[in-house]
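TICKET: design request
STATUS: open
ATTACHED STRUCTURE:
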């Protein structure tokens, strides 16, 4: 499972082992500063990244990933 969240500490506390850092608490999968096409692209990139993470072996008990890599 991959948890997409803007608050990875909470996901770590409940034992999620693959966490994708989202944007902000009110809009985890989006960005209000982008136009609609850019926001759709951002959401697609996040979903594709989550699918990529899901196929990987988790390098540790809990790993926080970003769109670009790991934290």
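STATUS: resolved
RESOLUTION: sequence designed for all positions
ATTACHED SEQUENCE:
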């Amino acid at each position: 499972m991959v948890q997409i969240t803007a608050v990875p500490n909470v996901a770590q506390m409940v034992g999620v082992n693959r966490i994708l850092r989202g944007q902000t608490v009110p809009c985890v999968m989006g960005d209000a500063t982008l136009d609609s096409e850019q926001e759709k692209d951002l959401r697609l990139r996040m979903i594709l990244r989550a699918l990529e993470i899901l196929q990987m072996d988790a390098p540790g008990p809990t790993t926080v990933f970003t769109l670009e890599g790991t934290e």
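CLOSING REMARK: The radius of gyration is 12 Å. Residues 11 and 19 are 7 Å apart (CA to CA).
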